[in-house]
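new request in #modeling-help
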Amino acid sequence: MNTWLSTILYLTSNAIHVYAIFIFIDVFLGRYTFRIAWKVASYVSYFLLGSLVWLTTKNSSLNILMNTIPLFLVTIPYITSWKKRVFSVVLSCSIGMFIDWIAFALFENAEIIKVGFFQCVVLLICASIFSRFYRNKPSFAFHSSYSWFLVLISIGTILVGFLTVNEDSSKDYIIAIVLLLINFLNFYIYNMEQRSLEEQHKIRLIENANYAYQNQLQTVNETQKKIKFMRHDFKKHIHTLQSLIEKEDLKGALEYLEEMEESVIVKKSYSETGNKEIDSIINYELTLAEEIGTNIICNVNLPDTLRVSTFDMTIILGNLLDNAVHALKSIDKKILIVEIRYNKGIIRIDIENTYNPKSKKKVNGKEHGIGLLSVEDALIKYHGKLESYPETSRWHTTAVFYNSLDYES
Amino acid sequence: MKIAIVDDDEMVCNDLIRYINAFNVKYDFDFQSESFLSCEQIYPKILNGNHYDLILLDIEFPGMNGTEFGRLLRGKLRKYDTQIIFISAVKDYAMDLFKICPIDFLIKPIKQEDLQNCLLSFITHYRKIDGFLDYVYENTKHRIKVRDVLYLKSQGKRVEIHSETCEAFSVYGKIIDLITDHEDTFICIARGLYVNTYHIIDVTTKQIKLKNGEVLCISRSKQNIVRDRLAEL
């Protein structure tokens, strides 16, 4: 075949190859940090670099190197874990390689195989099928430590391929097919693991919802206990006053009344929005903070009725305040600043607390992060965001969300 | 600038006037304050064309209460250029109060420092919308008050200006060039649609409601920007 024609055919094949890789990586890794233009530019650069190196050197080893390292760089702006990035690069390269080798082993002499056109089309079909059926869930990132095994298996198949497929064996294609199947199975195991993680996440959310209910019940219990004590004291006071008046000891009765007035402890109520559930959760958590000797500054400007469900508000406020109170327990200088406000349909919660950077974040065997996962889960419904960052010896948390449900919810 | 104090407690009115005078001296400002003992007293004055930039409004009154008066001001009189700070002895955050779009709430007894902070944030807010947008219309330079502009809509090479005071009209140019000095005041809620934050009374994830009752849709890609910008106000 004419050199120009084969070069054009190679460039077309490589363009299809890069496009297939783009479909796979983009669906698999999901969210991207920069604008789409950056994404397109990075894949185009990847295509140009790969083509240039192959057309000038025709070196297979260098070609594989230029297919993996730059591809890994292309995946960096995706918002995902390093494991998932490595896995996606290794998996896409190994599948590409094995399709290539199978095609070569079966129809070595065909020109369409030599320039890689057929292999790239097969890869594109695989990527399209993958994009049709794969559903990316960014919240269930690659958590398990076993996931590195999957990456190692894929790398292993590439090595086995290198060491065996190039030998002059008529059964080359069988080895390549087996290695390709191992890679497909590898991906299947990954998918199963993701499902299992999703189930675990759901269970954790249910546990946390139960915890929120438990918190509410505790608030109700505390209030009832206080009312019971007040009733009990009230009866006692009435009896004392009655007996003093019966004895016509008016001076004593007056003195007793004065004493009663002095002893009435006006408990500070931090939140009085008129929304009973929200007020009770804030007042309950802040009372806990007060009991451990925290200096509290609290300012709540929230309407009495909200479109955000009370249950979600309880999860958001309960968990954020709970975390702040637990963090305060590990430090001597206890300061808690809570600012909650509503403006033009947006709710903003700012919590600032002192904390001990050295203390571990595990409380009563309950993992600290689960609470924040529940908060994030609740915030998603209202297109909200959660930001948390340390500053000297203080921890800042800000939750901002709409007072209405998001499109999908 | 004129401030009205509406409270049935004369002592509170006198204290607030004293605090405002102290504020004028401290920050070299010229707030003129006037006090009223009921909403019925101030209402006819506003009906007769008196304008107040800020009203410090008590909520509980024996007659017309603060919420009713606020509703009349925003609803019947359509006066959105008068800002309200609610003052009350008890914390009351009924949704009705938020619908009146107050810039703050003060709980009695009011400390001089609290009022001072409120007045400072009012001044910041006021200065932001006190400027002008310059544009060329039929080869002549014109300007429109930022506070009068509801929203700007891009229509090809023209910008449609929707205002509170006149019919919508369009001028040649780009929105970005038009709002150069007032980018903080406008939010882009969809491609080629910039809304004046001053006129927003309510937002949901899907739409924005303006003070004149108009409802505009937020595009999905701008949901984060709208949320974050309004959370900073």
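bot summary: The CA atoms of residues 99 and 122 of chain A lie 8 Å apart.
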